[in-house]
Model the fold of this input.
Amino acid sequence: MKARFSILISAITIYPVLSVGIAMVIGMSVVGIVYLSTLRQPSNTYVTVIRAPIVAQVDSIATVKASESIGLAFNIPGRIARVDISSGTHVAAGTVIATLDTARITATRAIAQGNLDTQEARLSELQSGARQEVLTISQTAVNGAVSMLKNAKQAQRNAIRSAYVNANNAIHNNVDQFFINPRVASVRLSFIVPNEALQNTIRQERIALEPILTSWHKMIYTPSFDIATNTGTMSASARTNLTAISLFLLHISKALSVTQTSATLPLSTLRGYQASVAIAQNSVSNAFSMLTGADTAKRSAQTALAAAQEQLTLKQSGATIHTIQAQEAQVAVARAALSAAVATESNAVIRAPVAGTITKQNAHVGQTVLPGMILVSFISDGKFEADTYVSQMDLVKIKSGDAVQATLIAYRHTTPLKATITKVSHSPIIRNGVTSYKVTATFVATDPRIKEGFTALLHIITKQVNIALVVPTSAIIQNGNRSFVLLRTAGGGTQQTMVTTGITSVNNMTQILSGISVGARIESFGGVVQQ
Done:
């Protein structure tokens, strides 16, 4: 082996170009080995959508200082309905100091709660499948819709028959009295119309109407008419007949309006003819109305039957995954609406953020207030508070009353101290060239470890959901304002699915409000991995 290696070295020395070829062979071999090794590794990592609590928080460094007076205000506009605490009173943390009129807010919350209950019940029904009694109710609804459609078709046949009766009376009884030989081709008016063209038109229309009425009579008085199902076609035919008759009556009315009285056509006779035409026109108009009502009723019955059959089919076949996901989205929307209503209700109350004493009380019953208007001055029992400065992005997440876990850097290995956000300033401050906003947390209790000037790490809890759908943040793909995940399909591939996201925790988990359901498998691109 040593001899062969010596020969190889000698060959490289004599022929340097050989070294290049050997290097290429070795390089390609290494690349091939690396490529083959990657083929043995799984190309995709999937995680399971689970239900778990999730907490959103803002972490910030703060400086401890002696406590100062705290100004308290409502966060929403309104009218003060109750003032519970007067100046000089010592109160415990959470004590209600003043309250706005919440009648409308309470009603909104009740509506939101009712909607959430309804949507959750609907989701539960979809997930569990239809019960036998539900199927029975749906089948009964279909049977009722079938009967309703049958009755609507009968009403349509009755309207067609009544329309013929009205039309026949209008022509043969009301109008034919001033025609000579009205039912044959030699028909003519019994009086002279000054407009010869109009007179000829009326004569031709009367000739054309007779076979129409004869055919119509034959259709409605045959035995098959009472069981005919093509009522829509027959109704359309009746409308066509009525349209022709209406035009004929309009021409007759116009002819009578321009015809002069004479010895053979006295005024009383002319007025009688005009009255007869008016009666005929009214009869035809009523016939149109009857057909319209019957047609509308039939369409409504057909729509009701289609809807009832669709509901029965859905209940018999069970809900699809898309239907369930759509309903989950409705639940998420309803839950968000309730959360917003609850938040609004909580903003209608001024509470003591920590234990302390009211030093000034300027809230009065009936007073109209604006958000941020300082009404109450308060000094806490705690001797210390901590000031921190946050970005605009974090400021919108923080509100007065948020719970805080404060870790003193000097005692970073001990249990964090409890604190509460008591001041949130919306006035920007430039610190080290960066725009920041001052936020103050007051320590709930005195502790000998707290010293003025100490540095503390504040974990501000901005939002918490005890039961939420959560996935690793790394599994979410952002495309503009929309969020997607790659959902694993039954065939082993992936499908891009749009989702609605909620809060994100500091350990890189994100809440899913809609789009996917618990148990789904989605592709992850790092972060937390669930096997």
Remarks:
- The CA atoms of residues 427 and 437 lie 6 Å apart.
